[in-house]
Structures are given as C-alpha cells and as structure tokens.
Amino acid sequence: MNVPLSGGTSPVTIPGFTIPGSPLNLTANGGLGPINIPINITSAPGFGNSTTTPSSGFFNSGDGSASGFGNVGPGISGLWNQVPNALQGGVSGIYNVGQLASGVANLGNTVSGFNNTSTVGHLTAAFNSGVNNIGQMLLGFFSPGAGP
After folding, report:
1. Would you say residue 6 lies in a domain?
2. Does residue 3 form part of some domain?
3. Which of these, 123, 98, 67, 146, lies nearest to 111 by C-alpha position?
4. Does some domain include residue 104?
5. Which of 5, 7, 60, 78 has the highest CB neighbour count under 10 A?
C-alpha cells in the first residue's frame, strides 16, 4: 500500500513574553548542641598575681602579701606601688615607690602626701609629708632641703 502524503506548515511566530520575578522568602534555623568549655580558676586570692606568697587583688608581683592592682613587692596595697630591692613594704596609695610610704606619687622611706621625694635613699627614713617636698624631715608645701 502506497499512500502519498504531503503537507507543510506555515511560519510560526512566538510573541515576546516576560516572566515576572517571584519573591524569595527563606527561613533557616539551626543549632549546635551544647558545647562545654572547661575553665579552671584555682581557689586562691586575687587574679593574675605572680607573688611568692598569697596576695589579693589583680596582677600583683613580688614577695607577696599585696592587695590592689599592679603592685610590686611585699606588704603593699593600692595601685601601681613598688617596694624595691626586697625591702619590707608598708606602702599604700597610688604610684608610690619606697618603704613605709602612703599617698600619691611619693618616692622614698617614711614619706606620705603628694609627690614627695626623699633625698636620703630607701633605707633611711626621710619623714616627709605634704605636697611636693624634696629632701628630708619636711612638712608642708614645695619645700626643698632638710628640716629641723
């Protein structure tokens, strides 16, 4: 059987079109199970101290028995005080250097007040008190030399 078929198609035109954007809503949840991070803080007074005997406070160093912050030496309290050469302490206040000193920014032995300086060294008592005295046995304000 022979069936002759023939045919054709006319041209096809596809009109232009636009696909509109669609909103993208994304919600994500997640989690990571419990994580244990062990922190071991020893039961000792203070934090960050490197003293030979127990000290309270923070970041003190030296022979110990210090309290406060950043003190160096034995028997000190306050902030950033120092007792040189393993002398006995007894220093309190801020920025004092020496022995038996109290106040702010004093230098020497047996000195108290504000910014007083001993001229007789750390082993001899200067007995200075007041403000900005430089010498020994001085009391008052801005006095140089030696008192009575």
Report:
1. no
2. no
3. 98
4. yes
5. 60
In angstroms, the Cα distances linking 124 to 16, 43, 133 are 103, 39, 16
Cα 61 to Cα 29, 37, 66, distances in angstroms: 49, 29, 8
For residue 5, what are its two tokens?
């078929």
CB contact at 8 A, 140 and 133 = yes
Amino acid identity, residue 33?
G
In a domain, residue 89? The reply is: yes
Domain hosting residue 85, numbered range: 50-137
Look up the pTM and report it: 0.68
Torsion of the alpha carbons at 111, 113, 117 and 123, rounded to the nearest 10: 10
Report the alpha-carbon distance of residue 61 to residue 100 in Å, rounded. 18
Q: Which of 85, 62, 136 is nearest to 76 (CA)?
A: 62
- 11: which 2 tokens? 């041209």
**Domains contained in the chain, number:** 1
* DSSP classification of residue 55: -
Phi, psi (5° rounding) for residue 7? 180, -175
pLDDT in tens, 26-83: 888 888 889 899 988 777 788 888 888 888 999 999 888 899 999 999 999 999 999 9
